[in-house]
Amino acid sequence: MSFSSLVSDIANRNSERDDMRSQVSRARSYASTAATSVSISGDISSQLHGGYSHPLSRAWQAERQLTKSMLIYPLFISDQPDEETLIPSLPNIHRRGLNKLIPYLTPLVQKGLKSVILFGVPIAPGAKDALGTSADDPKGPVIRAIRLLRRQFPDLFIVADVCLCEYTSHGHCGILREDGSLNNALSVDRISDVAMAYATAGAHCVAPSDMNDGRIRAIKLKLIEAGIAHQVVLMSYSAKFSGCLYGPFRDAAGSCPSFGDRRCYQLPPGGRGLARRAIKRDINEGADIIMVKPASQYLDIISDAKELGKDMPVAAYQVSGEYAMIHAGAKAGVFDLRAMAEETLQGILRAGATIVVSYFTPEFLDWLGN
Ligand SMILES: NCc1[nH]cc(CCC(=O)O)c1CC(=O)O
Ligand SMILES: [Zn+2]
Ligand SMILES: [Zn+2]
């Protein structure tokens, strides 16, 4: 290499380096003016990441965080004392007789289970009739389970679902006229008697899920008349929608209607206004808690319930079909079971629920830890 070409090579490299230096210093000065202009203009609203960079600060972004006290676990109580049958369409969920209840629940109570909701399942031949007589049979599974659980787990909060469909031969949620339609007056009278029987047996909460008109008022009046209104919570399934998400429950409870469907008393899925009317009506009739069911498909209704019932707890029922779908999706590899269960619960809480009825309760007791 000649001397002159060496000189020009060094000069070139120097100028490249100068170029680079000037680029760096321009970038620095841009950054510093940008930083200055942020503080000068006060445009700090574009900076969000700092608020959720840590797991704890992410948790703080939620208005409501799931706690064990928010969860109610559904139990299917068979009239066969030794039964313990897995429900094929409801993964990990069993129908259990009275003799199987305490051994099953003991570890869950130790893990922090606070509340259960009871559904009776009469299996014995002839246990079902047109009036749902077995619903409030003092020797029936629900009343015996209430007594047993109160005795065995003094701190467990017992909710009794009140309906006739598990106990009627026709599988509808009330007493029928000759033409097969619901006789509302007779149904309300019968359902409020059943609610009274559960409350008298010691249920902390009665939860009518039948959707007959006027049943909240009727139950409240009977509770007052009996002098126990001050110690029983009345939780209304106010906004209960008809649809295809109750299938696995009906397998578990054997409560599929033998003819027709429930569209004349459960709400039509598009009926947001109707749901608002039902919620307002039940608040006026004396409900202590409003429930929305199903949950994830009806988040707007949960948020309406929170607005209309802003002074009361709002419950959401993550129903059997929602639970089965999450299991099926996880099994198909679409998502992780726990991640999806947690995400749905967050949606339900975000919408406004403060209580969640869920078949995932045992899992959440583990996931929430101590
Ligand atoms: N009226 C009884 C009742 N209470 C709760 C559910 C559904 C719960 C679930 O699907 O998990 C049902 C069944 C129905 O209305 O058909
Ligand atoms: Zn019913
Ligand atoms: Zn009908």
UniProtKB/TrEMBL annotation:
Residues where Zn(2+) binds: C163, C165, C173
Instruction: Give the pathway listed in the UniProt entry for this protein.
Output: Porphyrin-containing compound metabolism; protoporphyrin-IX biosynthesis; coproporphyrinogen-III from 5-aminolevulinate: step 1/4
SMART domains reported in the protein's UniProt record? ALAD
Q: Name one Pfam family in it.
A: ALAD
Q: Which cofactor does it need?
A: Zn(2+)
Which parts of the sequence bind 5-aminolevulinate 1? R250, R262
Instruction: Give the keywords, sorted.
Output: Heme biosynthesis, Lyase, Metal-binding, Porphyrin biosynthesis, Zinc
Q: Does the keyword Lyase apply?
A: yes
Question: Does the record's keyword annotation contain Coiled coil?
Answer: no
Q: Subunit comment for this entry? A: Homooctamer.
Could you tell me which PANTHER family the record lists for this protein?
DELTA-AMINOLEVULINIC ACID DEHYDRATASE
Its protein name is Delta-aminolevulinic acid dehydratase
Organism of this sequence: Sporormia fimetaria CBS 119925
